Amino acid sequence: MGSKQIAQETFDEAVQENITEFEMEPEEAVREAVLQFEAQGVDLSNIVKAVRPPASENGQREKHQILLTLESLARAVAEQDVAQLPQQLAALAAQCKEQLAFRCLAGRHGAYAAVLSACRLAAGDRELLLRALAALAALLDGQPDLLDAAGRELLLRSLRERRGDAELTLAGIRCVRHACLKHEHNRQAFVRGGVLPALTGAITGAITGALARRGSAAELVRTAASALRVMTFDDDIRVPFGHAHDHAKMIVLENDGLRVLIEAAKAFRDNSAVLSELCATLSRLSVRNEFCQEIVDLGGLNFMVTLLADCMEHADVVKQVLSAIRAMAGNDDVKDALVDAGATELIVLAISHHLGNPQICEQGCAALCVLALRKPENCSVIVEGGGALAALQAMKAHPREVAVQKQACMLIRNLVSRSRELCGPILALGAEVLIAEARAAHRDCDDVARAALRDLGCQVELRELWTGQRGGLAQ
Predict the structure, then answer these.
(1) 463 close to 443: Cβ distance less than 8 angstroms
(2) What is the DSSP string of 6-36?
(3) Which sign, positive or negative, has the C-alpha torsion 286, 191, 155, 134?
(4) What is the DSSP letter of 64?
(5) Is 238 exposed, middle or buried (0-12, 13-18, 19+ CB in 10 A)?
(6) Which helix (H) or strand (E) holds 316?
């Protein structure tokens, strides 16, 4: 993708020139403009790639439809015309959901201020507030910079005052989640403002049925868990040091997050979408030994193993359970408990059953890799259960997936580094050729593949590069 940017007007003018000067049809004119700018290294992800409506009779150039919708909304807000607001908010939300380019165009033309004003006007009208929050969530998706202090306070106040209403709580949490993705400042501001107890409280309310409109409970739990997970991200490249670890600790220690999530998983064990999100969030919270142990003490380990067995057909759930097991196994005591509970056999089964899914193969190999680390007795169990064979099959199935190749190589190394007697059986499965191929194909695999070959007892040829310096060769 290109790094250069252009204005929407520049793109529109290029399209119009293709139509008028080169007599192209509208669709061809757009395609040609896209090719022209992409060849120059321009990033068009934020550009509406469509023909702007032709000029009107008085010669005034028409605007893109989303800008016309925005003008109608701004007019209704200015006139405090609450009768027109629902229709305009719904239209803006629908157009924003179509593509990021529409949202960006609206954002550059004052959509945030108009929608925020609509939220304020809707304070006493539940249905109108739902429409306004839905429009705000759609607008903020991919544009967290739009949110300001006034918007954060409005959302926090809505979550506090409307915590008994599942639909309004859900609408508010969607806004929070979009505002915090890739935005460390918003994350920290929301946490300071008390969003964490609001999120865990929403999950608890959905579990107990305390929130109205029970039909929204599952989606509320899924979205609130996702928002909690976002609070533990470190994805804002503008900030050198985020508070991801601190936020994870606050969720666990101050808001009883592990118990809340595990209880939610037990309450919604027939909903794969909810379970997938809950497991993903648990994996993000397993950042300390004592947290991993707390998951075990709360019954989370046995639940995870049972869930993996029961939901083997649901790829999303399997992937997230494997990720959670991988995180929990950072605690050496939990490693042993997982092996004793039969997790290794189920992980091998998951890899074999979903051999065509590179993400499951990666997470499965990674989970086995952690279970094998510094645990020779676990290594024997894994190899006897087919773990090495499953990892090598994954390497065969996904030769171009560097993550799969890397995790499989790391697993093989962990299996034999303290258990030399396992080298022969693993080499007999064809490990040397596959690991050598991974090393040759992927630069990122070089170190781990070389270590695996060395610990397997294979002859490892060091790569030598000409440097042009005295001595000539560099390793």
Answers:
(1) no
(2) --HHHHHHHHHHHHHHH---HHHHHHHHHHH
(3) negative
(4) -
(5) exposed
(6) helix 315-328
Spell out the residues 6+ positions from residue 246 whose beta carbon is closer than 8 angstroms to its own.
none
The CA dihedral of 281, 183, 162, 111, to the nearest 10 degrees, is -140
Alpha helix positions (H), 79-182:
85-98, 100-108, 111-121, 126-140, 149-161, 166-180
Residues forming beta bridges with residue 4, ordered by sequence position: 42
Tell me the Ramachandran region of residue 182: left when phi exceeds 0, alpha when psi lies from -120 to 50, beta otherwise. left
Consecutive 10-residue averages of pLDDT for the chain (475 residues): 75 82 81 84 82 54 85 96 95 95 94 97 94 98 97 97 93 98 98 98 89 71 98 96 97 98 94 96 97 96 96 96 96 95 97 98 98 96 98 98 98 96 97 97 96 94 50 38
Which pair of structure tokens corresponds to residue 44?
């068009």
The closest of 14, 98, 9, 8 to 44, measured between CA atoms, is 8
- Determine the pLDDT at residue 215: 55
What H or E segment, with its residue span, contains residue 465? strand 465-466
Grouping H, G, I as helix, E, B as strand and the rest as coil, residue 403 is helix
| Three state DSSP letters for 349-379 | HHHHHCCCCHHHHHHHHHHHHHHHCCCHHHH
| HSE value, Cβ hemisphere, 13 Å, CA-based, for 452 | 30
- Cβ pair 262, 256 in contact under 8 A: no
Quick one: tokens of 444? 């990122």
Query: Please, which residues have CB within 8 angstroms of residue 56's CB and are 6 or more apart in sequence?
Result: 62
**pTM, two decimal places:** 0.87
Cβ atoms of 328 and 370 within 8 Å: the answer is: no
Contact 355, 393 (CB under 8 A): yes
Distance of alpha carbon 363 from alpha carbon 323, whole angstroms: 6
Taking CA atoms, 380 is separated from 167, 365, 422, in Å, by 51, 15, 8
List Cα–Cα distances, 307 to 280, 300, 317, in angstroms: 13, 10, 8
Cα(174)–Cα(168) distance, integer angstroms: 10
Residue 122 Cα distances to 66, 83, 116, 128, 473, angstroms:
22, 11, 10, 5, 72
CA distance 381 to 464: 38
- Residue 162 has φ and ψ, to the nearest 5°, of -110, 25
